[in-house]
């Protein structure tokens, strides 16, 4: 069965979501509703793929806190180094500025470890991106997806939201 151009467009722009997939405690979900609302496309070889064009790729503060506690993710802060020094960072996060993300995620594992003092994440590792307010982290998420990373999310609340929960006395 040949795909229509609309189906191909949906396929190219969609994020693959498997109903049973989990990022250790965070379920992939579709804002279109229950699984019955998911679009099903059939490949030319007869396979079925479930797609959701608006899959949730973000985490709440509570979800991020649980994942950090379980040590099941690599949290990458994509702000510039000066921002980390000026504002602070989420404990346990690795700083890789946004303008380095594409190159960093394609580095040789030895070079990555030398530059960032951390093991290079594999394409199946659970990555979460954060920044100050969630804009750059979404860009980093899209970059990682385009490079073949499969379990990626972003924290749209960023440092600003984290700080408001963790250090409420600092509210401005």
From TrEMBL:
Rhodanese domain span: 69-171
Pfam family, one: Rhodanese
Record keyword Transmembrane helix present: no
Keywords of the record: Transferase
GO molecular function (one): thiosulfate-cyanide sulfurtransferase activity
Entry's transmembrane regions: none
Record protein name field: Sulfurtransferase
Protein species of origin: Monodelphis domestica (Gray short-tailed opossum)
């Amino acid at each position: 069965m040949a795909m229509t151009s609309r189906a191909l467009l949906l396929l190219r722009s969609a994020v693959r979501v498997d109903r049973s997939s989990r990022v250790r405690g965070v379920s992939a979900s579709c804002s279109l509703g229950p699984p019955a609302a998911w679009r099903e496309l059939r490949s030319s070889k007869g396979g079925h793929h479930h797609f959701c064009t608006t899959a949730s790729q973000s985490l709440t503060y509570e979800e991020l806190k649980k994942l950090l506690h379980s040590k099941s993710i690599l949290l990458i802060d994509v702000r510039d180094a000066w921002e980390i020094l000026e504002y602070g960072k989420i404990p346990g996060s690795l700083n890789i500025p946004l303008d380095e993300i594409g190159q960093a995620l394609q580095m040789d594992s030895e070079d990555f470890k030398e530059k960032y003092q951390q093991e290079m994440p594999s394409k199946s590792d659970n990555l979460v991106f954060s920044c100050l307010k969630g804009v750059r982290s979404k860009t980093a998420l899209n970059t990682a997806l385009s490079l073949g990373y499969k379990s990626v999310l972003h924290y749209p609340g960023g440092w600003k939201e984290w700080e408001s929960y963790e250090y409420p006395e600092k509210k401005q």
